[in-house]
Specification:
Blueprint: H1 13-26, H2 38-41, H3 105-108, E1 119-126, E2 129-139, E3 157-159, H4 170-176, H5 187-190, E4 191-197, E5 203-208, H6 214-217, E6 239-241, H7 257-272, E7 286-288, H8 295-298, E8 332-333, E9 350-351, E10 373-375, H9 379-383, E11 388-391, E12 399-401, E13 407-409, H10 411-420, H11 439-451, H12 461-475, H13 477-484, H14 505-514, E14 521-526, H15 530-543, E15 551-558, E16 561-569, H16 572-581, H17 585-597, H18 602-611, H19 617-628, H20 632-636, H21 642-649, H22 666-684, E17 697-704, H23 708-721, H24 723-726, H25 736-739, E18 743-745, H26 750-763, E19 767-774, H27 797-802, H28 805-809, E20 813-819, E21 837-839, E22 844-845, E23 848-849, E24 855-858, H29 860-866, E25 876-878, H30 880-892, H31 898-917, H32 929-941, E26 952-957, H33 960-976, E27 984-988, H34 998-1008, E28 1028-1033, E29 1046-1050, H35 1061-1069, E30 1073-1076, H36 1080-1090, H37 1130-1145, H38 1151-1162, H39 1174-1182, H40 1193-1207, H41 1220-1231, H42 1234-1240, E31 1244-1247, H43 1249-1256, E32 1275-1277, H44 1291-1301, E33 1302-1304, E34 1326-1330, H45 1343-1361, E35 1363-1367, ...
Parallel strand pairs: 10-12, 11-13, 14-15, 17-18, 17-19, 19-20, 20-34, 21-34, 25-31, 26-28, 26-29, 27-28, 29-31, 36-56, 42-43, 42-45, 43-44, 48-51, 55-56, 55-57, 57-58
Antiparallel strand pairs: 1-2, 1-4, 2-3, 4-5, 6-7, 8-9, 11-16, 15-16, 22-23, 24-30, 32-33, 35-37, 38-39, 39-44, 40-41, 45-50, 46-47, 46-51, 48-50, 49-51, 52-54, 53-59, 58-60, 59-60
Helix pairs in contact: 1-44, 10-12, 11-14, 22-45, 30-31, 31-32, 31-33, 32-37, 36-39, 37-38, 38-40, 39-40, 40-41
Amino acid sequence: MGNSYAGQLKTTRFEEVLHNSIEASLRSNNLVPRPIFSQLYLEAEQQLSSLEAGSRADNEEEEEEEEEEEGSESNSPPVSYQMKPPPEGCCTTDGFCQAGKDLRLVSISNEHIEVPSGFLLVGAKSPNLPDHLLVCAVDKRFLPDDNGRNALLGFSGNCVGCGKKGFCYFTEFSNHINLKLTTQPKKQKHLKYYLVRNAQGALTKGSVICWKGAEFRGRQSSTSTCSSTLFQLPESSGLSGSTSSEPLPPANPSAPAGTQQTAAAIDHIPSTAAFSSAVYNGKESPKQQLTKNNLSALTRPSVLGTLTNTGPPKKRHKGWSPESPSSTETWNLQPNPQAPNRIKNDGGSLSCLPHSALVGPASSPMVGSGEPVSVPDNLLKICKARPVIFKGHGNFPYLCGNINDVIVSPLLYTCYRNSQSLSRAYEQYGASTIQPISEEMQLLLTVYYLVQLAADQVPLIEDLEQILMRSWRESHLSEIRQYQQAVPQAFPQVPSHITPVTSAQLPWLAGLAASSCNDSVHIIECSYSLAEGLSEMFKLLIEGKLVKTNYVVIICASRNRAIDSCIVITGKYQARVLSESMLSPLDYQKEVNYQLVTGKVETLGSFFSTLCPEGDIDLLLEKFYQENQGHISSSLSASVNKPTAVNGAGTAVCTSYEIERHQIRPFQLAVAQKLLSHICSIADSSTQNLDLGSFEKIDFLICVPPSEVTYQQTLFHLWHSGILLELGLEKEHLTKQRVEQYVMKLDAEAQMKFKVFLQNSMQNPHTLFVLIHDHAHWDLMSAVHSLYPQTELSTGLVDRLLNCREVKEAPNIVTLHVTSFPYALQTQHTHISPYNEIHWPSSYSNGVDLYHENKKYFGLSEFIESTLSGHSIPLLRYDSSFEAMVMALGKRFPRLHSAVIRTFVLIQHYSAAMMAVCGLSQMKNYTSVETLEITQNLINSSRQCPSGHGLMVVLRIPCIPLAAVAYERLYNVRERLALEDNFEIILGNPNSGITIGKHFVEQLKIWQKIEDVDWRPQTYLELEGLPCILIFSGMDPQGESLPRSLRYCDLRLINSSSLVRTTLEQELGLAAYFVSSEIHTEKAVVNDVLESDPEKLSSTDNEDEEIATEGSASEKRSPLKRERSRSHDSASSSLSSKASITAFCTESSPPQALSNSTEETTNNCERQKQKVDKGAQTTISKHLPPVTEQPDMKQNIKSAQVSITSSSSSPFSSSSSSSAPTHNSFILQTSQCSMTKASKQPPIVFLPKLVYDIITSTDSSGLPKSSSLLPYHSVMWASSFRPLMSKMMTCTEQSLYYRQWTVPKPIHMDYNNRNEGRMDTFHPRRLLLSGPPQVCKKNKIGKTGAYLQFLSILSRMLIRLTEVDVYDEEEININIKEESDQYYHQPGGMWPDLETFRKMPFDYTIHDPKYEDASLICSKLQTINSEDRSMSRRQEDTYTCRQTTRMRLSKYAAYNTYHHCEQCHQYMGFNPRYQIYESTLHAFAFSYSMLGEEIQLHFIIPKSKEHHFVFSQPGRQLESMRLPLVTDKSEDYIKSPTFTPTTGRHEHGLFNLYHAMDGASHLHVLVVKEYEMAIYKKYWPNHIMLVLPSIFNSAGVGAAHFLIKELSYHNLELERNRQEELGIKPQDIWPFIVILDDSCVMWNAVEVDCSGDRKSDYTWTERNVSLKQILQHIEATPNVTHYALIGMRKWSSKTNSAEIKEPFSCCHVHDFIMLNVDLTQNVQYNQNRFTCDDVDFNLRVHSAGLLICRFNHFNVMKKQIAVGGQRSFHIKSKVSDTPVSISPAQYICAPDSKHTFLAAPAQLLLEKYLQYHSHRFFPLSLKNYSHPVLSVDCYLNLGPQIAVCYVSSRPHSLNISSSGLTFSGLLLYLCDSFVVASFLKKFHFLKGATLCVICQDRNSLRQTVVRLELEDEWQFRLRDEFQTANAKEDRPLFFLTGRHI
């Protein structure tokens, strides 16, 4: 599969996760501690014999083509093969020869290739190109013939690419064609296929080259005791695809004996090759076919003598070392003793052990052989059962005669065959040492298994598989452990000390085992063939001698041949269950329908009539009706008339009927956020499968099964969620018809609605469509392999619609599968990546409530928990009397399906129970206690509530015709008993809506306060509180939710013979419940029932958390060993039921008695401890109302305890009740409402006994047996040799388990989605949400609410993706602005007038709000307001507390790396149609005197951008960057090169200017630090990078600005020189560059309308424009080259008219500047600066007499970016790595002190210190704005409370007049030679003013003091010297302070 060397782990993350997770689960197994899954991931297999055994057929195109090396241990790296290094300069590309010619078949298939005579074209496989064949010409003498023989040793070949001939060594040839092998080159290994020309003349892959000896090199694959068949299969007889459970085709009966033997051996290969789909890295097991062209090869007798090997193994492995004695292995061939009709599996059996068992025949189990056996007539009539015959080993005889009365199954044969297939998991232990389990042992273990089955148990094939698996592992435990230790010794010849069972011993041992079972298992031994045993068995059956026998085992054993066997199920119950389990769901329905239609059930009805001594039940009913007409209705339905009367009187009404408002639950929000996270992960991946940035809105379609109730239920949730209005899909006035557009029933009409959905998706590419497939495990039938197209119109509809090409390929459709049972979507061929699975989160983690949810989930694990001892009445029960009657009737009516019998019995029980409750007490004997309890509580429930609320009973009848019969019968009984107003009977048919009586509709409308006259309930949720029997029909529930009033879930009629995990859990999911846990008193008492262990497998969990689904986290159960209580049937519950009968029949039961006895016995959660302990008292009293002053408080507490303990009433208020008596009566009154109690407790579930046993039985780890069943009908196990599931598996681990160990059947829609170990079969935009099955309880508490919430937050995120937070701050220091009414330009002026602009004064004041914390700059013109400019922000708040506004991105925005759209793919370098952009690195050097050395910069220039540069012709050295002319005018490009300095923002920097530039051509250069070069290049492959020298790695933004400017000026000079040669004047070269901040996101232009009457009247509007428009406008400014700096305003929503009235300003510019590098040649940025370097530069430019112009009609929006930039500099201690907060006061210290040095640049420490602590140096300056600090030649931020005055020491510079100013301090920073003593003496200072001199070192400090004669006016002290807190090697800056004398 692509790895060319042994032992190499595959690299995909999924496989690593799969391997690790299941390995961990296996470590808990004591039998085989070593993991068994390495065969899926390790390319190398460890072979233990010197002759490598087995064969591997190369027969599928996708199959793994390489034979792995037999290297060292699988976990150690292989010894690499050193290939000869290729000649220098030659081509080394895979698929090309060293001459650079293409050899790939796909490339040259149509080319003419010269093939010399005697040569053939063959295909070679390269390990680096697994999907390609390389074409080679090879001399056919060195290739084998058709039989794999006669190939000459050596090699002779030619290269078809370059034509080079005469390669005599394959090693030399493999080097030439660049195979790049890590193992020794071998022609047998790499020359794979002959190449032939097809009809069109194209070269194609032909048959496999059949190399001799391959049969000894393959993997072990035989089920024989030794190793393998002794011949190689040619390609065309190879494995074609078949499933492991299919029978093999029969061998050719007419072929000669030798052919038969050979064919049989081939036929046997599937089982020998480990009959599973996981054999070859997840590939499906193949099936062999014998084809004509190889028959001649196969008919040759295979005559091999004894093969010995006296030398060391060919390849070294851990079992052999050069020092060890040579191992000798002898292989003996024995003649085949079988008669011609007994086809053996080998041409001869291989044996290396004296007592090895022979392998059974591999002829088809479905084809009989030998003499026929006649089935007796009237067998079914005599035996009352149809025997089921399971074929075992050997041949099975033909059956003739009355074959309709027997059923023959190959299931057991398949199980035996699979268990004999030595799993590849154990191949690492050696082929010839560990044998498969023998046939004798298989049969003996089967007998043991049958013996221990109880009379009412049915054998399960899964149980037998695990028994065989365990037995094999235990018998070879010592070998497995031995080979886990790498002991370098020869392998032992005898692998096991267990004496094998011989065929002679088998019958005796089997009989011995069966002797203890009271003839339940009968052994028949026959000497000749199975025919005589079967005949004897039929004879015994007819004679009635097998009445007590359930299983007959027939054994035919002989010393000279393998055993034949079969097992006959003769037990009536077992035979019935097993035969019915073989029916498909459709056949099951057909059979039942047939029996109903043909009237076969009438015999059953007449039999029931004879049971009742009083006569027919119908006669009794009629008699009762006549006698009691008019009387019973008034008494029994009294409660029906209560509600209106009670309400009218204003007395107490039941308050438990809450219409809960729709709210999002915490765990729903968590699931929605996980879904969103997965969507973002898909979008963020490099595969470009989802471009979230291109979508503007969300649309969706919800697909639901064709159940009308589910459809209406989804519409209900959608309507009330408000999601359609939130997404903007619909307007305020929503109609039901509009909502229906978003929900699709998967029925015959679905295709039209789906077609509209697809059309919408194609017409709206900027809308993201979410296709939600709810209840996704329903109908996974393949549209291609539909089994029943003629009957099921909707079969395969999901496949046809959701898997269609349009959905798969649409880039704007995301498919979300939602289900509670995801197992069928988790196979080896699934479309869904394991990374795209979302599992419902756990509510608890280690006892901590994660979501503070007041609803606790009660699911399957909790139901199972309730059956354990220590609980009250269990919630899961079975009805033993019902089961007994069904079993008895099953024997009496063998031809009737058990579903018919069970339904009729249950109808009879319900009918009798209703009659018993109505007074016909004699009918109690004709019903079961359980049914009587259900009926009693149902009929009396409405009488317990003042408003008439009652219970719901769900009666599950899967078969729709039977459900109709039941409905008709129960309806009739109810009418005869005059109960039609007491409770309703509802037939729930999935294909139709709900129909209920008008009387009950009116009741529901009153309860739900509905005034609509035409309202009818459309969902089961709307039936809340209605006393009713809901007959729930349909083969599978289809997502219908049930209301909170559900009390009993009667599942006694579910199809118990169809045992798959999904079906069982789906049926039990009807009863799953969210129990309210709102009151703490309930926890104190009821936690016994609600608490459960962390049963991960059956509950919902998070992939990374342990699950504990508990009702109460406050207490844990004691760790005492729990035992199952007695069987939960009528015997154990009859007492309670009888008590409840008497209590309910008593009309006026007092409240206390009702609490203590009656309810306690009938409701699950009420049967608690009679004694309330002190702890419970304390808990209860804590939550009672504060009425301690009342004398009857104790009485109140006591009564409250009684009622709460017994009835779990609704929460009582702790604030609303004012007196204890009122409070008490409230509790008692609400406790009588049955619906209230039902909503507080999970329902009680009745199951068939068979299902109950499976559900409640657990394995040794506590795993329920149901969890280890086959997960779904349309999937199958990949292998019997699979590990057991673990109870502690999380949902993720379960998913990985099923993904490895299950494969879809051909009828499954994923069958053709073959996953060959690669991840490319996963659909990238498909997700799976799995959550618990649950009852929605009217508040969207489940998955529906979660995915609707997901749609909501996804929509918000898309909107958020189109929005950014931009800084929105007013300009600062407006009040300090010069006070002048003079305006220099007209308000609407487009460009500044140069002469007018020269007259404008420079505004020294900083107005940019980001400098709110900076020092004021004073000028004579300003009137300083001495207000307190205190620090408004702390240091850490500088970025986080700035005011922002959310803005929608315009079409002219700049973007970061997360933006992808079609237009800018090429610009970004991500367009898949183009190759990855190649870049070249160019050095660019220039000298700069101030740095004292040559500066060397590096450009990274993509190929697509090279046209912007000039290169020297010979060596392509970078010469210059092209510059346009001043006179150039074009709308298509921007003249100014744009530079963006950036650090730490490779993902978030806004470098995508494609849209901002409106697609115009422009030159954009990113200026990055050297250490960030690689990451920026990765994210921006098509951008030009300017890489700063490494010395600037720790520098600030000043260094970048400095180098950009100096580089640009140097480039200007180069371009002038270059273009001067072309006759262009130097001054005509464009001198401007743009320096752009990396957070500039959008640009705006202000349009001023001056059309008013007066000149001062004008209006203005602001609109978003492109950066291209602004730059081209500025570039077109008249006399533009006379301006040194041009900038624009920063955007603010609070801009006022005064700020833009003057269109141009002469002031500071920031963030976005156009810099004239020609005019500013002598003005430099300070390369040392970190902050305020732009202010410093602006002041230098102005003092040099240059013009700075700000366009006020343009503004730039800056995005808030939380990472990178200045915050990438972290100041930390140099000594300790632990992050310790260091205050700015610690940034400086005294020289030579022991202060902690800091790891930060000295300049940064200086600037930060002065910003926060400059008042220590300039105490007189603090808030003294009229006496600023004089700052010479630089601007340093001294903090907002100190003002500075900037002066330049340069000659002829422009400075403010300082004649009237007295300064409070002097700051001299790195003074140069222009600063002289006479210059400083011009300025006046206050007495006590302070001086601060800053220099590079202490020596410079002293020289500066002397040179400037500072000691004349300033006083210095030794202690006034400081330095930055840097180590000496970090070159600290030194300070000297002094006081003015």
